[in-house]
Amino acid sequence: MVKMSHGPRSGSRMTMTKRLKDRGMPRINSYMRKFEVGEFVAVNIDPSVHKGMPFHNFQGFTGVIEGMQGRCYLLGIKVGGVKKTIIADPVHLRKIKV
């Protein structure tokens, strides 16, 4: 028997699949998005962009921008009672109104 792979994208077939109409690379505007510290954003992973992709368990979570690290943003998220900081490219983030 072959052992199951436990890579970073294992168990994410449905999460990392685009609809037929949405396939292909995202528009250039999504790469150029700007966020301010303290803004609320939702994690919406774009599977066609591998750079700056957060772990697939964070898909759909909401967090607060805490700062920048290179071209990516530091995002504070509460998971259960624990505060976690993830790094995500602006392609994988959507601004929300709270």
TrEMBL record:
- Family the UniProt entry places it in: Belongs to the eukaryotic ribosomal protein eL21 family.
Renumbered residue ranges of the record's region Disordered: 1-20
One example of the protein's molecular function in GO is: structural constituent of ribosome
Q: Which UniProt keywords apply?
A: Ribonucleoprotein, Ribosomal protein
Task: Name a single GO biological process.
Answer: translation
InterPro entries, alphabetized: Ribosomal_eL21 (IPR001147), Ribosomal_eL21_arc (IPR022856), Ribosomal_eL21_CS (IPR018259), Ribosomal_eL21_sf (IPR036948), Translation_prot_SH3-like_sf (IPR008991)
Report what the protein is called: Large ribosomal subunit protein eL21
Q: Please name the SUPFAM superfamilies in this protein's record.
A: Translation proteins SH3-like domain (SSF50104)
A Pfam family (short name) is Ribosomal_L21e
Q: Does the keyword Transcription regulation apply?
A: no
The answer, when asked if Ribonucleoprotein is one of the entry's keywords, is yes
Cellular component aspect of the GO annotation: ribonucleoprotein complex; ribosome
